[in-house]
Amino acid sequence: MKQLLKILIIGMLCCYQMTNAQQSSGTVIIGNVYAKNDGALIGVAVREVDATNRIVSATITDINGNFSLKVKSPQNKLKVSYVGYKPVTLAIGALKKFAIEMIDATEMKVVEVKAKKMSNTGTMNIPERENSLAMQTLKADFENLSVASLDEALQGQIAGLDIVANSGDVGSGSTMRLRGTATINNNATPLIVVNDIIFDAPNTDAFDFVNSNNESFANLLSINVSDIESITVMKDGASSAQWGSRGANGVISIRTKKGFRGKPRITYAYRLSEKKQPQGYKMLTGDQYTMMLKEAYFNPKFSSSASNINEINYIHNDAVFPDWRMYDNNTDWISAVETTGITNDHYVTLAGGGEKATFYLSGGYYNEKGSIIGQNLDRYTSRMQLEYNVSDRILFTSEMAFTYSNEDKNYPISQNNHDVGILGIAYQKMPNLGIYREDSHGNTTNEYYNVPQTMSGALSDQKDLPNPVERANLAKNNVKSYRLIPNFRLQYDILPRETHQMLQIKGLVNFDISSNTSFAFLPKEMFTTTWTNDQLNKSDFGSSKSSSTTGRLEIQWMPNFTNNDHSLLMYASSEINGGSSVSQSESSYGIPQGITSPTTGSYVSDMKTGTGIWKGLSFTGSTHYSYLSKYNIDFTLRREGNSKFGPGKRFGNFGGLALRWNVIDEAFMKKSQDWLSMLALRTSAGVTGNAPTDDYLYFSRYETWSNYNQVGTVRPVAVTLDNLQWETVTDKNIGLDFGVFKDMFEVHFNYYYKRTDNLLQKDVSIPTSSGYSTLKNVNVGSMDNQGWELNLNANRFIKVGKFSVDCYLNFSNNKNSILELSDAVLSTYNGEYDFKNGSYMSRLQVGNSIGSIYGFRYKGVYQYDIDNTALVKSGYTKGTAPIARNASGNIIYNSEGKPLPMYFAYGTTNQLQFKGGDAMYEDINHDGNINQLDIVYLGNSNPKVSGGLGFKLNYDRLTVNINTVFRWGNKVINQARLLAENMSSNLNQSSSVNWRWRKNGDITSIPRALLGTEVGKNSLGSDRYVEDGSFWRVNQMSVNYSLPTKFLSRFSINQLSVFLTLYNLFVVTNYSGVDPEVGIGGWGVSTDNNQTPRTRSFTTGVTIGF
Amino acid sequence: MKNILNILVFFSFLLLGSACSDYLNVKPENQMVKEDFWKKESDVEAVVRTCYRSMEEKDFMWRVIVWGELRSDNVITNSSSGNDEQLINNVNILSTNGNCNWQSFYTVINDCNMVLKYAPGVMDSDPNFRTADLQAKEAEVLAIRALSYFYLVRTFRDIPLSLEATVSDNQNLLIPQVSADSVLKVITKDLLQAETWALDVYSTPSETKGRMTKDAIRAIMADVYLWRAAVDTSATKKAEYYENCITYCDKLINATTEDFISDGSLVQVQKYKLIKLQASSQIFSNGGGIGSISNSGVGNSSESIFELQFSTDPKNDAVISLYGDNNRNSAGSFKATLAYADSKSELVFPKTDTRKADFIVYPFISEGIYKIFKYLGTHTALGSDPYSYNTVSNWIFYRITDIMLMKAEALTQLGGETNLRQALQLVNTTYVRANSSSSSSSSSSVNTTPTDTLVFNKYNNVPAMENLVLLERQRELMFEGKRWFDLVRNSERKKSTNELVGYVVNKYTSDISTIITKLSVMNALYLPIYENELKINPLLKQNPYYQVSSSIVK
């Protein structure tokens, strides 16, 4: 750390010296600069440079092309450069007067540049054809896409990278998985690296990755997509091993744009998007709803008094029910909360530079109004990149990124511990209810209507539902965040470049400072409860600050072998990082009316503070060796220490080895070389890992507790985790690269096997006879992920005149299975079946894949009651009835000759006899009893194949981009439909329940309405709600046209292009829900909870450059 | 090349220089770590207090009441009570019942084990912490641990015995069960040791009543011996344990202390003397401090031997939610058994017994719902509403009348006329106090036999006396978490549940035959091991009574 600072200071002093150079004493030289055709040149830069090209003094020529310069040393050289001319370098020597002729650059001959396509592994720049690692680079052309964040832009583009948007809510982010899920409790998201620096969520340590999917990737919002130059995805262990414990989930390495030499160029881009919610379930209207509810209340008891509920009784009488006007509506709550989302995105960049320095500056303003009311995001981003060549051997770089975002979200509405959102409530809210209060003349007032506490007890489900329109408009939930990432780099060539070998050291200091404040308020108007309710006028305030520092020292050596067959590149680095975070939060309620943020005077219900400190250090070494560019080897070793482990287990060793054989270079391939441009075999193996997310685990800790007999106490709170180890991920990869016709067609294939050992699991139960119920972290077992990726690229494979086509297609497959899991975890997870509606049995088995879904098989609806006369008359042959049948399908009779009825959970407290109109489940073991023994495997949440397909069509200055994504063979639990079709509560239902069973003999697949969770078993976890989640989505289609330069130059405009992007154009799927793209939950089962679906949008924009 | 090598060597030193492992030592800011703790006597004291404080946790107190009362005939569940409690009430006990979770007890036990493990080391760093100080602290935690185990043994019978503090995950945490007998042996030994080391008195009266003194330990000893006598099969052992029980009871009954009498002179008086007037109010919730030890505030009456000191923080939440709060119109999760509480019934309390109205609120809240009042406040015969509520009440584990009746029980079991007469005399002490209107003499000293109260010729045989003692224990100690264990002890003695069932069915109005069947085996008297516990610890064996065939092989 100190050393780094020293180097930086030295570097800065150099800069300082340079600016002061002119004041120093020395000989004065004079001269004149001219050109053959133009005569004297004005404003030509004349510089005195030393042996390493460092500028020691400088001046410019006057109106007559004359200059005078006080030189420091006659040994130095004089360098003269001017735009449009070839630079001139002269020795100073004893000469005092110079006449310098500049030669027009246009007269230069065509220079043939012989360069190899390079790829950056994160540590080294090596030729792409020598790269033995499994990585894929995307040279991004993101300007034409209106996407808020990187993940949206990446979707479907990288083989093996499965990205699922969490929801269509503004700023909600997505779930990313590279080559499957290799960890259970830890963060399974690939590591994001920006310009070789880890880009963390601001407070990773306190972050619960398993339970807060929604936010987890929103942090990527703070990278403006327009600033991205390229994205490299490192997939195998050997390539991500350089990031050690952080690289276990793969790495997404992002490089941002840099400045360039040349005239400063200003680019302005504007994008406008409009978003619409796609059509979801059609819900019941108010009239259909009240009819359904009446049946639902009547059916369980066959009593009309049970269904005699004022709110659904069509009363038009003030004396009987004064609020009747509020309950005779047909409100479409869904369209009431939907709106047209509009995005405005302004973006300006300024880039340029000269021989000594280049710069890139950008600033953007992004505003998004969500397609659900009450959502708004404002984001300001700016990025600055400066490169300064202090001399030929010293390069100083500074970057600064700043993001400020101000987001208004909907106030969360929690049901069963997850946020259902405004839209979720809109789907549940009773449609016969009005949004606004109506006065006695039936006119709508502007006061929102909330159901009173005096509402019929039977409708208690509805009583707890807020008015979603009111919730979105009146409740506040605001998050503001700042993030500032400055960094400084200094690069020094220890050996001069002329020796043709490279020995370079680099120093880097990076700071990452972020601050978040959140404020939420629930006004009293939303409640009809008493004043003492703890939700009333409730305000939540939270703030967190975190900062982290990274210091890194790197050394790179490329020896110059006399035998050119060998090439070697070695790299070593040491890194220290550390960070801290502070957070505090306060909740209070009962705040006086009209005040949202009181200083005092309310009931403080919760108050918390938290601090966190983390530190780490690491040493990395890598080597790349290539013989004749034919046999290549890459080797990486990393030793890493982490403050989360105790002294003995603090350091982990990670590393990787990769080999590549360019078969194409072999002599026997000579014949094929005219058409075959690449044939290479790769293989690699790597070890990466994961550290637990909690701190201080290796201490036995004590904390102060409350009093005993007025005196304070101290209690032990945690057990020392001496056994805790790094979670290690061992990864093996075999790959094939294939290219024909000068890489017009490229094929990349990878097969991988990834094994996770010492799987970390949080809060593992232990026998309470120890005095504790859980251990915070335990290594519980191992699992593996294996799969393949196929990536096909066709570059300009069709070329007719000005027309050309590019195409990409990728497929990937991943299968994971649990190899070993501690009994305690298995038995805790595999609970007893709870016999409840809507719940799927959770089962985890060694040898099986995670994400498996188990449930009953749904066979439709029983047409008849068992004692229905028509049925009895027919001798039980008619239709279907709940009658027990044996394996051969024959009816089982009791001693009286009557058929045995079908039971649910016979002999338990959940016992229930099926009736006509009830759901029919397959009696797998033919015992006339539907119970846990009839539960079968229904499928898996992991897709068999996923990937993307895209085309790029070029015609002259017109480009059409089409990107599509697909997933195939995954199952999704459509929980949203389950809730919308169960008819067991008084939440609104989907209009499909209009086809419900109503009387004996009805043939339908929708059971009868039965209110109450325990009176019927019509919505048990069955394959009725397990759907195929396969889809093919046309994600983006964009048309871009840039105007001809010749035409533009008249208006001194460099570049002008217009574009139109259609986003989420259409989806081909059998999935009945709103959106088949459903995220994967903690243990890998995907459940569609009816989150806001992906919106449909179009974007149009213009880019103009000067 | 040499140059380069030099640079490389320099560079690698640079790397290693910063590789100090100390850099990675990060200690928490809001917690203490073991390495910095256990240095001073005050550290030991703070953790010893945690042992008591852990007992005050709602989960612990909840189970003390649920295990000791709910299964007995004293209480029935109210409609507002939780599902788990209702299932126990209906003798529909499954291993998933949350009340079978014993974690709160093992937390206390582990806190005690921590003190036993680390306190000796404090002597090295704190010169003021001497052997006697250490032993006094060890005595306290040994006693607390023994009491916790005693509850577990009486509730589950065979339990895991953990005598080693849990400090690291590399310890073997899968502990098998051991027999109840070996647990009892261990705790007897521990209590014997604790008795010799413990203090007689602490600096303040509330500390003396609220921490483990020699007397508190003796009270537990008496209880443990009485239990061991009941469960042991050998006749000689039984006799020996009863004798031991009597010895320890006598140590408490005959204990004396110095006190100033009205003329200012110092005399030896009975240490745990009975309160004559408004005893219940003064013992369980004394807002006014009348009759309690001077300045001790609430509770801590002269009758009590060991009671957990509650205050407004923490409150005795288990009592509040199970027995009720200060709203006289609503009962807690439990209500008094109708057959006993009904104002006309004389099934347990005779008409003259003042304890009935002291322990239960009259009139009832609504038909059949009698609110339990013990612990909730004071009951006086004055004013329009005789019940006044306090927010704070301690929880008494042992008080002198409990000890007296334990002695009576032991004497009865030993048999013989002298013993039986002595037993009756002890029973009469508490009985007469509560039935003073029926007694000819208003003074109810231990040494005088009331003439027309309980007469010996009605109870001159062991079974009759046995029933009387059991009944008097029920009356005197109702709602104090003792009744179920009294019934189980009685059943263990008889090796039959018949008598127990006879009492318990009194609280039921329906399904009586099912309940009789369910409680017909001894194993049914003990709770099942909590299902989660069984899953995690494969060494545990479920009580055979609860082994269900429905556990299907997966």
Fold topology:
The complex is a heterodimer of chains A (1106) and B (554).
Chain A: H1 2-20, E1 27-35, E2 39-40, E3 45-49, E4 55-60, E5 66-71, E6 77-81, E7 88-91, E8 97-102, E9 118-120, E10 125-127, E11 135-139, H2 150-154, E12 161-165, E13 174-178, E14 191-194, E15 197-198, H3 213-216, E16 228-234, H4 237-240, E17 251-256, E18 262-276, H5 286-301, H6 333-337, E19 341-353, E20 357-369, E21 376-389, E22 394-408, E23 414-415, E24 418-419, H7 421-428, E25 436-438, E26 444-448, H8 460-463, H9 468-474, E27 476-493, E28 502-522, E29 538-558, E30 566-589, E31 603-627, E32 631-642, E33 651-662, E34 676-690, E35 701-708, E36 711-718, E37 727-740, E38 745-757, E39 760-765, E40 774-779, E41 781-800, E42 803-821, H10 823-829, E43 852-855, E44 858-861, H11 869-873, E45 903-904, E46 912-913, E47 919-921, E48 929-930, E49 936-940, E50 945-955, E51 958-968, E52 971-973, H12 975-981, E53 1026-1028, E54 1031-1042, H13 1045-1049, E55 1055-1069, E56 1096-1105
Helix pairs in contact in A: 7-9
Chain B: H1 2-17, E1 32-33, H2 41-55, H3 58-70, E2 75-77, H4 83-89, H5 103-125, H6 131-156, E3 159-160, E4 177-178, H7 180-197, H8 205-210, H9 214-231, H10 235-253, E5 256-260, E6 266-270, H11 279-284, E7 304-308, H12 317-323, E8 334-336, H13 338-341, H14 355-359, E9 377-379, E10 387-389, E11 395-399, H15 400-414, H16 417-434, H17 462-476, H18 483-494, H19 498-504, H20 512-518, H21 531-536
Antiparallel strand pairs in B: 2-8, 3-4, 5-6, 7-11, 9-10
Describe the structure.
The complex is a heterodimer of chains A (1106) and B (554). Chain A has a 22-stranded antiparallel beta barrel. Residues 1-5, 11-24 and 203-218 of chain A have low confidence and may be disordered. The radius of gyration of chain A is 35 Å and the shape is globular. Chain A has 1106 residues and is mainly beta. Chain A has 13 helices and 56 strands. In chain A, strand 41 and strand 42 (803-821) form a beta hairpin. Chain B is globular. In chain B, the strands form five sheets. In chain B, strands 2-8 form a two-stranded antiparallel sheet. Chain B has helices spanning 2-17, 41-55, 58-70, 83-89, 103-125, 131-156, 180-197, 205-210, 214-231, 235-253, 279-284, 317-323, 338-341, 355-359, 400-414, 417-434, 462-476, 483-494, 498-504, 512-518, 531-536; strands at 32-33, 75-77, 159-160, 177-178, 256-260, 266-270, 304-308, 334-336, 377-379, 387-389, 395-399. Residues 287-297, 438-452 and 549-554 of chain B have low confidence and may be disordered. Helix content of chain B is 47%, strand content 7%. With 554 residues, chain B is mainly α. In chain B, helix 15 runs antiparallel to helix 16. The chains are: A mainly beta (1106), B mainly alpha (554). Chains A and B meet through strand 29, strand 30, strand 31, strand 35 and strand 36 of A and helix 1, strand 1, helix 2, helix 5 and strand 3 of B.
